[in-house]
Design brief:
Layout lengths: L5 E6 L7 H16 L2 E5 L12 E4 L26 E5 L2 E5 L2 H10 L4 E6 L1 H12 L4 E5 L15 H22 L2 E6 L6 H9 L4 E3 L7 H13 L5 E6 L11 E3 L11 E2 L2 H10 L6 E5 L11 H19 L5 E6 L2 E6 L14 H8 L7
Parallel strand pairs: 1-2, 1-6, 6-7, 7-14, 8-10, 8-13, 9-10
Antiparallel strand pairs: 2-3, 4-5, 11-12, 14-15
Helix pairs in contact: 1-8, 4-5
Bound molecules: 6-O-phosphono-beta-D-fructofuranose (F6P).
Length: 365
């Protein structure tokens, strides 16, 4: 029997439903089957840079956390050890503290590190593996935009929340003959908007992969009017934009210390303002925001996250450092962490888009 190991665990990037289910599966199987012990690292990679952000993580700590959203370890999407934001005078400077992170893992006597996160966290894990750190990854995000895996956990729950929101907006839209524009997360990928748009019966689905034209939106709305449908639901990704137009950005990366990505938002309003120039119908915008990320995970996400958490221990047992767990054809397998660096986008020629079009859903192109 292999020797019991001491493993560090961190959750990085935006939280999503299922993180606690994963931690629970990892710790329970790790302790019961392998005799491993775990060290919880708080606030993502920040916990390996700042002092006093580590604590023992035992089976006791995982009691009652299965249905809980968020993460018991806390998270941060600004703590990249390769460009870590440090206060200097009135401003911020970014420093490479990755060697310090490797040293900290040695000080903590970690035999390996489990990094749970989206593309940012996993790509940092990949870089740290390049520095010799023994690390395995677990993919999570409501955006479902990681190419290494067929699905990330968190996506199913977010899809349910958005679908329910669309259902609810239907009745009030119909009562008032309004056009409801619903802005949905997902960054530069349209998976969440596409799938919840289909599930929630949206009339128009606007995703980053298909820039939209206002004339096309007007045609779809007019077609509905001729069928005596005087209300409409437009599901729009936060990353969607009009042809020839720009992304709607709330904050530039440069204004967010340590954050290598822009903060998106406002695409719904842009779309509504463009439409308002041409139609008399009342238009209302709903921004679902972080409601899509909070709260209890769906059963499907709990199961997927549990599978990921338990599978990590196979990778550790087999010495598959530098890999992450992934769902491929319904099997949980190991794939190289480098896979997480490839972004995934909606296949605009794929079945889902084709079938949606054939049912009369407009994509604004
Ligand atoms: O990646 C998950 C996600 O929720 C995106 O859909 C969204 O653009 C982003 O995170 C929001 O990040 P924050 O919580 O930092 O505003």
């Amino acid at each position: 029997m292999a020797r019991p190991l001491r493993l560090g665990v961190l959750t990085g990037g935006g939280d999503c439903p299922g993180l606690n289910a994963l931690i629970r599966g990892l710790v329970r199987r790790g302790v019961h089957e392998f005799g491993h012990s775990f060290v919880g690292i708080e606030n993502g990679y920040m916990g390996l840079v700042e002092p006093e952000l580590v604590r023992p993580l035992g089976v006791e700590d995982t009691r009652g956390i299965l249905p809980k959203g968020g993460t018991i370890l806390g998270t941060s999407n600004k703590a990249n050890p390769f460009s870590y934001a440090v206060r200097e005078g009135d401003g911020w400077v970014e420093k490479d503290v990755s060697d310090q992170v490797v040293r900290r893992c040695e000080e903590l006597r970690l035999d390996g590190l489990v990094a749970i996160g989206g593309d940012g966290t996993l790509s940092i894990a990949h870089q740290l593996a390049g520095k010799g750190l023994k690390v395995v990854g677990c993919p999570k995000t409501i955006d479902n935009d990681l190419s290494g895996t067929d699905q990330t956990f968190g996506f199913d729950t977010a899809r349910l929340i958005v679908t329910e929101a669309l259902d609810r907006l239907h009745s009030t839209a119909e009562a008032h003959d309004r056009v409801m524009v619903v802005e949905i997360m997902g960054r530069h990928a349209g998976f969440l908007t596409l799938e919840s748009g289909i599930a929630g019966g949206a009339d128009l689905i606007l995703i980053p992969e298909i820039p939209y034209r206002v004339e096309s939106l007007l045609e779809t709305l007019k077609r509905r009017a001729t069928r005596r449908r005087s209300f409409s639901i437009i599901a729009i990704s936060e990353g969607a934009y009009p042809e020839g137009g720009a992304l709607s950005v709330l904050a530039e990366a440069a204004d967010i210390p340590g954050r290598g990505v822009v903060r998106l938002g406002g695409s719904g309003k842009v779309c509504a303002d463009l439409l308002a120039r041409h139609i008399d119908a009342e238009i209302r915008v709903t921004v679902l925001g972080h409601l899509q990320r909070g709260g209890s995970p769906s059963a499907a996400d709990r199961v997927l996250a549990t599978r990921y958490g338990c599978k990590v221990l196979d990778l550790v047992r087999d010495g598959q450092w530098g890999h992450m767990v992934a769902l491929r054809n319904n099997d949980v397998v190991a794939v190289p962490l480098s896979e997480s660096r490839k972004e995934r986008r909606v296949d605009v020629q794929g079945d889902l888009v084709r079938f949606a079009r054939s049912m009369g859903i407009g994509f604004g192109d």
